[in-house]
User: Fold this.
Amino acid sequence: APDKPVLLTGASGNLGRVLARELAARGWTLRLTDIAPFPDALPPRAAFTRLDLADGVGLLRLAEGCGAILHFGGISVEQPFGTVLGPNIQGLYHVYEAARREGARVVFASSNHAIGFHERPHGNAAKLDVDCAFRPDGFYGLSKAYGELMGRLYWDKHGVENVNLRIGSCFPEPTDARMLSTWLSYADLVRLCEAAVTAPRSGHCVIWACSDNPASFWGRDHRDRIGWQPQDSAEAWRAKVGQLTSGNPVTERYQGGGYTAMDYTRRT
Ligand code: NAI
Ligand code: 15L
Assistant:
């Protein structure tokens, strides 16, 4: 376990609850926070503080003495610009200021929606490397691109280390054909966060956070820097979900799936 406490934002969310349970079970000392109450029994060595990411001073206090911040809080799906702005842009700045003051590493839950308007690779076409252009597929994805760039800035200017996890689809199991490419198992997520926090040095790095899926859209990234390899695969669900497509040509063409087709008004 890390020698200093680890702050987890978004602790009451789907992924936060998994991480709180599993990292505590590995002996970690966790400070949990969320704007919503923590719905489970508090794990051993964990404390929960209810806080809005808008409260920058509160975050500075919470991060005191922490060696890393797992930043999983905020808006997690497509929403109007004004809804995304506070938690995902201003809130992210508060997280980075806290990390800067503590010399803590940030592990940021970025998303495939930062690059969702890249086309899906067909046949033997090259997979997408992590240094590809940002092609956000909505205001949510745009906030994730901004979050990765915030990490770039704080590393270059202040030496704040950060590991940006471009998460595909992290759910108990794949539920449609796209997830045969994008799925990240909970177990691979937990091992990824463990590696991201405990690696001796990370600098600024970006990682495709999906399991070892043969149908993955994604190629090279910086996983060697933290020594992570996924162990699970979505392929076992092909018979069950392989036929579950949307019938929408925009959704099916791009990596971001349904997010790309929301409010899509382009005609050419
Ligand atoms: P979630 O919506 O279940 O959890 C997000 C948590 O953030 C919620 O508990 C919510 O109360 C909290 N939150 C929202 N606004 C807040 C604010 N102003 N102040 C404090 N807390 C606030 O989402 P989930 O699925 O657990 O995702 C966690 C993170 O991972 C999110 O950042 C999401 O964007 C990212 N992600 C998740 C993926 C997935 O497949 N589950 C895929 C890609 C990225
Ligand atoms: C995300 O970024 C969302 O947080 C999650 O709810 C899923 O929609 C996921 O992407 C996905 O692309 O499947």
Remarks:
- The chain has one domain: 6-261.
